[in-house]
Amino acid sequence: MAISSMAIKSLFTGIVEEMGEIRHLGFDESGQSFDMIIHSPTVLQDVNLGDSIAVNGTCLTVTEFDSQRSEFKVGLAPETLRKTSLIELEKGSVVNLERAVKPSTRMGGHFVQGHVDGTGEIVSMEPEGDSLWIKVKTSPEILKFIVPKGFIAVDGTSLTVVNVFDEEECFNFMLVEYTQQKVVIPLKKTGQKVNLEVDILGKYVERLLSSGFVDSIKSR
């Protein structure tokens, strides 16, 4: 059974380190490379060329950086623009940032690859006390991996699903006051998109079932 196509190259926790500001988003002078330049003092503290940084949950590679200006550049491939919500950003937008984990990193969220599975649309944002309930609609292909009390990364933020509404093709989650101040999700409006990455464990389970691995075990 081959699952090499799901090999993990970089790993994140879904705990946002910093909200960075986009200084540039678009094609370079050649018109061939679509780049993003982000202002971000914290994640640049130990950056190197080729490092992986999750930008709104999308694993991107640092191609240039300027420590004095606290800026780094990443390139966006056409497939990345098609699959994520990054194309909707503009100069001045803020984004969630997280550096790839090191072996010594404390695991505070869940295993996040930075491989966005698709996008969802915010359909409601309702406060309850100092907390905020958010409901997101997504495709059936993604929703099948989302379960109540399970993990999901929304714009790179590790969150716990509260409920799944299959008929509406929606799920919801709640942000406490502290989290609202540290991530970009509350800054968005109803109708805007968010990047989604489902729990990798669900994808491995589906792969095992579809390959007939479980049936082969039973037949032994």
TrEMBL record:
Keywords from UniProt, A to Z, are: Repeat, Riboflavin biosynthesis, Transferase
Q: Name one Pfam family in it.
A: Lum_binding
Name the pathway it acts in. Cofactor biosynthesis; riboflavin biosynthesis; riboflavin from 2-hydroxy-3-oxobutyl phosphate and 5-amino-6-(D-ribitylamino)uracil: step 2/2
Q: Under which EC number(s) is this enzyme classified?
A: 2.5.1.9
Task: Please provide, alphabetically and separated by semicolons, the GO molecular function terms listed in this UniProt record.
Answer: riboflavin synthase activity
Q: Give the matching InterPro entries.
A: ATP_synth_asu-like_sf, Lumazine-bd, Lumazine-bd_dom, Riboflavin_synthase-like_b-brl
Keyword Transferase in record? yes
Q: Lumazine-binding domain location, by residue?
A: 11-110, 111-209
Q: Where are the Lumazine-binding repeats?
A: 11-110, 111-209
Gene3D superfamilies xref list = 2.40.30.20
Biological-process GO terms, alphabetical: riboflavin biosynthetic process
Name the NCBIfam families for this protein: PRK09289.1, ribE
Q: What does this protein do?
A: Catalyzes the dismutation of two molecules of 6,7-dimethyl-8-ribityllumazine, resulting in the formation of riboflavin and 5-amino-6-(D-ribitylamino)uracil.
What is this protein identified as? Riboflavin synthase
Q: Which organism is it from?
A: Deinandra increscens subsp. villosa
